[in-house]
Amino acid sequence: MTLQLTHLGTGSRGNATLLRTDEVNVLLDCGFSGKELERRLALLELKPEDLDAIAVSHHHNDHSKGALIASRRWGIPLHMNFDTCSRLGLDPVNDCTLFEALGRIEFSDDLSLLPVPVEHENADNVGFIISHRGERAAVVTDLGSWSAELTRHLGRCTHISLEANYDHGRLLGGPYPDRLKQRIMGRGGHLSNEQAAALLSEVCGPATRSVVLCHLSEQNNQPHLAESEVLMSIENQFDGDLSISLQSGPEFSHYIGQVEPERLSSAHV
Ligand SMILES: [Zn+2]
Ligand SMILES: [Zn+2]
To answer: Residues 214, 249: contact at Cβ < 8 Å?
Structure first.
C-alpha cells in the first residue's frame, strides 16, 4: 500500500487527518472528542487502539481537544512542540514527545514528518510535510501568510492539503465583529480562498497529483467559492484532482501519487 491520507473532518469545530502506511497509522491533530474520533475511525474500519501516534500542530481547541483523551484512554503517544505542550498544560516528559521546527519525526521506515513553522495567531503552529518512500505530501492549515521555506517544501509534494478558510467578500459582509474580521485577515490569521489560490499557483506543477482544500469556514465560505477561486488560478498548470474536505468528513481517501481519490461509501452518514 502507498501512503493513504484521509481527512476525518476539517474546520473550526474539529480537525483530524489519518495517515496510513503498511507499517503505521498516524493521526495529524485530534480536534474531536473521544467518542467522535471513535465514530469517524469506525467509518474506515479502524479503532483508536490502531493508532500508533498523534502529532498535534498547535494548541487551538479544534486541533487538540481530543489529544489528551486519546492518549489517556487508549495509550496513544502524543507528539508536539514545546509551546503547544505548555499551552495545553501537559508535562513534556511524561505526557508527550517534543519535536522541534524542521526536526524530522520518524514513525517507521516508511513514514516521517517534517514540521514547518507557519505564522498563526498567538500559537506556535506547524504545517506537516509527510515523507513516504521518496514521495511527499503536505497538510497545512491555520496560517495567515507563508514563508519561502514553506513554498519550497510544498513545491516538492505530490499531494497538498491546504486551508482555504474564507471568502473575502463573505467575511467582510458577514456578522463577525470588526476586530475578529481583522484577526482572521491578518498575517497570523487564516488563508482566504484568494491566498490559497495564490500559494497553490506558486507550488503546483506537473508532479502535483492531488490538492485538497480544507478548514473552510462554515460562516464565511462556500465550497464552490473556494473551488472556483483555486481552479481559476491553477487550471493551466495542474491537471490532478481537486477535492474539498468539510467538517462532516471523512468523504474520501487519497493514495499519494495517484490522481483519483477513493470516495468513501460512508460519506454523508
Ligand atoms: Zn484551526
Ligand atoms: Zn488555529
So the answer is: no
**Strand pairing class (78-80; 252-255):** unpaired
Is the CA virtual torsion 185, 141, 164, 265 positive or negative? negative
Q: Give yes or no for a contact between 83 and 99, defined as CB atoms under 8 angstroms apart.
A: no
HSE-CB for 49 with a 13 A CA cutoff: 0
Lookup: cell for 63? 486541533
What tens digit of pLDDT does each residue of 104-156 get?
999 999 999 999 999 998 999 999 999 999 999 999 999 999 999 999 999 99
* CATH superfamily entry for domain 4-262: Ribonuclease Z/Hydroxyacylglutathione hydrolase-like (3.60.15.10)
Judged by its nearest atom, the ligand closest to the C-alpha of residue 62 is 1
Residue 189 CA, ligand 2 centroid: distance in Å: 8
